[in-house]
Amino acid sequence: MPVEASEASADRVGDLVARVLDADRGAVARLISVVESGGAEEPAAVARLYPHTGHAYTVGLTGAPGSGKSTLTDRLIARLRRDGARVGVLAIDPTSPFTGGAILGDRVRMQDHATDEEVFIRSMATRGHLGGLALATPQAIRILDAAGNDWVLVETVGVGQVEVEIAGATDTTIVVVNPGWGDGVQANKAGLLEIADVFVVNKADRAGVDDTVRDLTQMLELSPARAWVPPIVQTIATDGAGTDELLAAIESHRAHLDGGGLHDRRRARVRDELRAIVLARLAERAADVCGERAFDDLVARIQARTIDPYAAADVLLQHE
To answer: From CA 134, how far away is CA 273, in angstroms rounded?
Structure first.
């Protein structure tokens, strides 16, 4: 990149970060787009922003599609706003096959807060980031943190590996289920028992809620002993029932972590993030090496049986 272009890019990033620190909503949106795309400006943006982070408390919400996470998130936003808290929300949506962007269903369901200057809601999709959402999400959380939000809520769609990892990379993780949620073994497979700090049985006005609570209780009793046993909260998100109890459970877990667990949890997240960044950078380097002529020459030698694949890989790595 030419020196002039590089300097212009640095100035643009510096201006965006300064405006984010002043809680400029437009700048927050644009800077999230920068980290979401994973372009060359992302590292500079993170470097400038990072010293101003670490203040917001983060809560992840995950669960099967249709479990009512978005409505529950909406109710939780309203409850936090009653206490005067500023709230940032990341709705991790599936990628639209048409636009490459995030489907906006979550923001539609949270539209009651659209005019509230103390609430910022953003849908995110993978887009062009090499590390995908698992790398882009922590940076987006930091932007909302630096912008002065007291709470950052991260809602994910589905219970696949990526969604579970993202939701689990928060201070408190809420797993939302419904009455008659199905086979508990599937929850174990998805890692939901491992990441859950609070279980929510939403749509608790439906039949089968007692059975679901009993199944969860038994699963927790059979799981390995842990210092914190996830409480099970019943909610009816459509009318807000149970929201106070949910916030109380979150605050209880937060108090539990204040004994030193929060530092340890955040340190573990940083370790995982650093490892993921290193792997992404190495993958970039590997892609570059495998695109050079030396790679094709070695492929020809492997086919000619003059070198084996492992020895060829060593040659490429030594060359790098």
So the answer is: 8
Query: Rounded distance, CA 203 to CA 78, Å?
Result: 18
In the chain, what are the domains? 54-259 (3.40.50.300), 276-319 (no CATH)
Residue 299, φ and ψ in degrees, nearest 5: -60, -45
Cα dist. 179→156, 219, 236 in Å?
Answer: 20, 15, 11
pLDDT digits (tens, 9 = 90+) for 119-157: 999 988 755 555 567 788 899 999 999 999 999 999 987
Reported as half-sphere exposure (CB side, CA atoms, 13 A), residue 14 has a value of 6
User: Average model confidence (pLDDT) for the chain?
Assistant: 85
pTM (predicted TM-score): 0.86
Helical H segments across the chain, by residue range: 3-21, 25-37, 41-49, 69-82, 105-109, 133-146, 161-168, 184-190, 192-195, 209-222, 243-257, 261-289, 293-303, 309-319
Could you give the CA distance from residue 173 to residue 59 in angstroms, rounded to a whole number?
6
Rounded CA separation 66/182 (Å):
14
Q: Cα 111 to the chain's mean position, in Å? A: 21
